[in-house]
Write a structure and sequence with these properties.
The complex is a heterodimer of chains A (about 210) and B (about 240).
Chain A lengths: L8 H4 L8 H5 L3 H8 L1 H13 L5 H26 L3 H27 L17 H22 L6 H24 L16 H8 L6
Chain B lengths: L3 H7 L3 H10 L1 H11 L7 H10 L6 H13 L2 H34 L4 H27 L17 H22 L6 H24 L16 H8 L5
Helix pairs in contact in B: 1-4, 1-6, 2-3, 2-10, 3-4, 4-6, 6-7, 6-8, 7-9, 8-9, 8-10
The chains are: A mainly alpha (about 210), B mainly alpha (about 240).
């Protein structure tokens, strides 16, 4: 996907690298961003929060923020834009899936004795069905990379199983949306690339309102 | 954990165990019994138990792979034995998928965009085979040989439906092993393949007008026994 295809050029600039060990160390950043506004913290938060530890609750809160984003996108933004045909059908079905992910992750955080992050306010630069679908492709593919990047750091087998069950759905959504856009359903060819928290933040940050 | 000596004897035989799981109902039942009702099936535990339970007759397999095992320390072998088994299991599935797509492409049942997608998917499965075989070797194991396979290829709609089934099974198979993998690197590799299988499955779902997310909002895992029973008809 080239940058100029996107309404928001920042989203096109998602850089994908091979996974590094240091990427596992960046924890808690998006959770903090959800509370304080990612735009405000994104430039330095990854570094700052890398030292504060992390763990499954932080990873789950990171995921929860992304799932809130996706749910809002499909359930609220889709209505504002006004979709038709398959795009409308997908938005309805995918929105329900994302809402189910929000509920499951929130429950998992509580079960681990953690505090789920508040739902942030989002801003989506989509004004037409076409720009909505392009942003959907970015968001869903970002979700796949985010889960694949975070999953190897998860300690609990149950949390890992849940994350695996969710990332599979994000991948299915991503493929279907890409097909609707006449793009390849497998943009990373045979191996989806894991994204570090920093990379996810850089891409999702502009969608989270301060 | 059982003693390391048991692992050293058994670790070189993942291929034999996979084969036995596929062909032998008694082994599958024993596996299920061991997996228990908790659902936390540990393939590693199964490997050890299967070896202890009477694999002495398959001494040729043990001998063939023995150098790789003795090269590692006993703790290294025990840490890797489970991952090697899982990787070889995945390798078997990827070999089957690769053979399937090769046969489909050869049959020329599709044209245009769909043919191009199937060709891409076939190439991706082939890249999974190469990556998994390399990972097995990196862990000091011996990659399983490609199994002889047979797939019914009669019509475009039948093939697309079979592909949809196979890809959904593949996604479920990877998901079913995620919790059993010890190495973070192996887990990362398995996850990066898992989501690609899911993309294939969803794409085929749109082609055959079947659900993109047949399990709903959460992909359901499938354990090794279930998967191997499902692919049994495709082994020649």
């Amino acid at each position: 996907m080239s940058n100029n295809e996107l309404t928001n050029p920042e989203l096109g600039g998602i850089e994908v690298h091979g996974m590094t060990r240091s990427s596992f160390m960046l924890r808690g950043a998006l959770a903090a961003g959800a509370v304080y506004g990612t735009g405000a913290v994104a430039p330095f938060v990854s570094q700052a929060f890398a030292a504060t530890g992390g763990g499954d609750v932080d990873i789950l809160n990171f995921a929860l923020t992304l799932e809130y984003l996706e749910t809002d996108f499909y359930k609220v933004k889709a209505k504002q834009v006004g979709l038709s045909g398959e795009a409308k059908t997908y938005a309805k079905a995918f929105g329900d899936d994302e809402a189910a992910h929000v509920a499951a992750i929130t429950a998992a955080i509580k079960q681990l004795g953690g505090k789920p992050v508040q739902k942030p306010t989002f801003v989506f630069p989509a004004t037409s069905q076409s720009s909505f679908l392009k942003l959907a492709s970015v968001v869903e593919n970002l979700g796949v990379g985010a889960y694949n990047g975070a999953a190897p750091s998860i300690k609990s087998k149950q949390v890992l199983a849940a994350a695996g069950g969710i990332v599979q759905i994000e991948a299915r959504h991503a493929a279907a949306i890409n097909l609707l856009l006449d793009k390849t359903p497998t943009p990373n060819a045979g191996f989806d690339k894991p994204l570090s928290k920093k990379q996810v933040l850089a891409a999702a940050g502009p969608l989270i309102k301060m | 954990m059982p003693e390391d000596s048991g692992i050293e004897t058994c670790a070189p035989q993942p291929a034999g165990i996979v084969e036995r799981l596929v062909r032998d109902d008694a082994d599958r039942k024993r596996f299920l019994k061991m997996a228990g009702s908790a659902g936390a099936a540990s393939f590693g535990a199964f490997v050890l138990a299967a070896c202890g339970g009477g694999s002495k007759s398959s001494s040729s397999a043990t001998t063939a792979a023995a150098p790789a095992t003795t090269a590692s320390t006993s703790t290294g072998a025990s840490a890797h034995a489970g991952d090697v088994s899982i990787l070889n299991y995945a390798l078997t599935l990827e070999y089957l998928e690769t053979a399937f797509y090769a046969k489909v492409i050869e049959a020329k049942l599709f044209s245009g965009k769909v043919a191009s997608l199937l060709k891409d998917f076939g190439a991706q499965e082939k890249s999974h085979v190469a990556a998994l075989a390399a990972a097995v070797k990196q862990l000091g194991g011996t990659p399983v040989a490609e199994p002889a396979s047979k797939f019914p290829v009669t019509s475009a709609s039948q093939v697309a439906m079979l592909a949809y089934t196979v890809e959904n099974l593949g996604a479920a198979a990877y998901l079913g092993q995620a919790g059993n993998i010890q190495s973070p690197e192996v887990l990362a590799a398995a996850l990066s393949i898992h989501s690609v299988e899911a993309r294939h499955a969803a794409t085929l779902g749109t082609l055959v007008k079947k659900p993109i997310t047949p399990d709903g909002a959460f992909g359901k895992p499938a354990d090794m026994s279930t998967v191997l029973a499902a692919v049994k008809p495709f082994l020649a």
